[in-house]
Write a structure and sequence with these properties.
The chain is mostly helical. The chain has helices spanning 9-19, 29-57, 69-98, 100-119, 124-142, 145-152, 161-175, 179-189, 191-217, 230-256, 262-286, 292-316, 321-329, 346-366, 373-390, 392-397, 407-434, 440-461, 470-490, 492-498; strands at 333-334, 337-338. The protein contains 20 helices and 2 strands.
Amino acid sequence: MAAEDAFSSEQKELVHSLRTERKFLGHPRAVGTLSIMQLCNSFANYTMSSLLVFYLYASVADGGLGLSQTDAAQLISLYSAISILAGLVGSYVADRILGPRRGLRFARCFMAVAYVVLAIPGTGIAGYAASQVMLVFSTMLAGRSLEALAGKMYEDGDSRRDGAFAITYTISQIGAAVPAIAGAISLIAGYHAAFALGAAAAVVGAVCYVLTEKKFFGPIGLEPDDPLPADSRVKTMGLIVGAVVVAVALLAFLFLNRIVTISQFANTLSTAAIFIPIVYLVYIIKSKKTTHAEGLRVKALVPLYACTCLTALVWTQSTTVLAIYTEQNVDLYLLGMEISPATFQTVPAIFAFIFGSVVTALWTKLGKHQPSNPWKVGFGTIMYGLGPVFMCLPFLLYPAGVKVSPMWLVVFYALIMIGEALASPTGYAAASMVAPKAFSTQMMTVWSLVGSTGAGLSTLAANFYTPGNEVMYFLVMGGITIVGGLLLMLASKKLNVMMGQEAA
């Protein structure tokens, strides 16, 4: 870590003390702060994501924006792709301009403002667009700085690292249980009242970080790992802000004048989202700042990345195709009372907490005897693939228009969340472990691009989805995902050696 090479002996002692802490569930207190911040962010994000597709295509008279269902689904996938791609810029900013600590501080404060804007009634399409732009910009300030900071809180070889990512993931899933509450609020008081709930959580998370940052992190992550010259930092940041302003103005002009449609732009960007991570990984591997050994470890991460992209494709179905299916084809009455379709977004959160807790305890107990990271991701990918294969059944068993039991969705979520608990924290831990020193934050962002690639694949896949072809749609998606997981498990031993975790 280049930034730490300049630490004084006193600072190094403080860093060692902070990294060896066991004051938060056997981990440093900084991990507790990051977990709480993730909890609040998850609370805010799930409030928005669970309701946004319905808000977009609900009629204006019902408090929505009145868009078509197709445009609504593609806008959701498009935002996911853009925001995660923006993380590339954010991680560059963290690694070279602000440092992960400052980047995360500015980003989370700006993000809180974005959620507040979305919660303001009467703002219509302008308020929605402004909030999404601000959320994307906040990502451009920090990228995956939070995950990078989590990785920095441990010495090399500390076996607690995987457990830390599992803890952060599990705690964040408590916040993911909010869709049931948000959905109920939206039915009673409208969408903006529900969005206000998420905004409040975002504010709490930002305040928590600002108040504990200095004490819990010390000098860790304060400075960039690969800084630009001091006189270039302000200029580069100005260019980034200027590029954002120009891009937003250009897109607004194209959309408002109907020169480009949402569908055309979504398909174009989604295609790019598939290839950008590949280009970036090649850049990291070939960089003069990456040693031969570091490059070899990054190459070993590629198959894990490919499989996790497939899991992200499956997950995106829950907020697009399956979200619409839930509203139109699932029985939404419980004990004679109507429930919001957003309530079902709580189900994966419950499973995530349960399975995440089990997996965290299991890895802690097994210690050095736990399965390799490639094996975990491979098995998790298979479980993800079983989800869409299972969802073929209700379409085979029931005719169109019949309201089906919500248990079909419950089983779907159970399958994919077992996969999520195994693959998601493991993937971030593996990326943190193999990251070249000069690309610590950028490497976490590249890994997070699985979400962008998955959203991109989902946007393209949506072009092949029509009511009536669900069986083939989900069967192909699930089959490809299962095969990918099997191949990764078969190659897990070799990949583990390449990652430096097992002797050849």
